[in-house]
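RECORD TYPE: inverse folding
INPUT: structure tokens
STRUCTURE:
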């Protein structure tokens, strides 16, 4: 059986085919980035709310240093703003006429794997993980890609840093106090049947049916991955 892991477009992949991977394995290396805010409306003397009319780039596109980012033409002259930065256009703000460019720095970081298994194949944009068992379910309300080892929250389960740190917590329902405690202990995410009791910045997805939740608890596979596109939940081992 194969579990597919999306790979960031940027960054250097640090795993190879045939390698056994666990949560201590370096997955990829990428550059640390920071965001630069540029008030384009001031640069070309244009109304903030109409700034999109003058931009030469859209969100998600690469910007080169020295490249024309915005241009305003009139009968007498043309005003241009050329980028002082190289990076990715992340945001256009029509309220203050600004843009955000994500600029890579000379510093780098290494992201460790959030999955465990043997690398069977590597394609552009995807690592294929060979596993022995796999169960897949539909989810809902997932906005991010996350995963890790699984902590199944049963009545006799012991909640401490060793059991929770780095784990994805699977449970039917969790009260606000326990949720906050688990976040403080380092929970990597929550997979629940009912909505969380407290608002959270921790990754979260809901089971679509009680049958899926009950089956996941029955099989208790040790690892899981949650995909935001379609909110797919994959348990494996």
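DESIGNED SEQUENCE:
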């Amino acid at each position: 059986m194969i579990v597919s892991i999306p790979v960031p477009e940027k960054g250097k992949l640090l795993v190879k085919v045939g390698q056994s991977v666990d949560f201590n394995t370096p997955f990829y290396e990428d550059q640390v980035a920071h965001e630069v805010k540029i008030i384009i409306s001031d640069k070309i003397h244009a109304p903030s709310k109409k700034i999109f009319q003058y931009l030469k780039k859209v969100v998600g596109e690469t910007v080169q240093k020295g490249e024309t980012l915005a241009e305003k033409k009139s009968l007498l002259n043309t005003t241009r703003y050329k980028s002082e930065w190289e990076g990715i256009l992340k945001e256009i703000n029509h309220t203050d006429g600004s843009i955000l460019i994500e600029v890579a720095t000379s510093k780098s970081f290494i992201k460790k794997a959030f999955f465990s298994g043997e690398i069977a194949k590597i394609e552009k944009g995807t690592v294929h993980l060979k596993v022995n068992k796999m169960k897949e379910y539909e989810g809902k309300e997932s906005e991010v890609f996350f995963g890790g080892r699984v902590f199944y929250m049963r009545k006799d389960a012991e909640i401490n840093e060793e059991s929770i740190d780095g784990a994805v917590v699977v449970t039917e329902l969790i009260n606000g106090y326990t949720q906050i405690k688990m976040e403080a202990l380092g929970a990597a995410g929550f997979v629940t049947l009912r909505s969380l009791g407290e608002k959270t910045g921790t990754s979260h997805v809901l089971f679509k049916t009680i049958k899926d939740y009950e089956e996941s608890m029955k099989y208790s596979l040790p690892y899981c991955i949650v995909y935001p596109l379609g909110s797919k939940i994959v348990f494996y081992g």
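NOTES: The chain has four helices and 18 strands.
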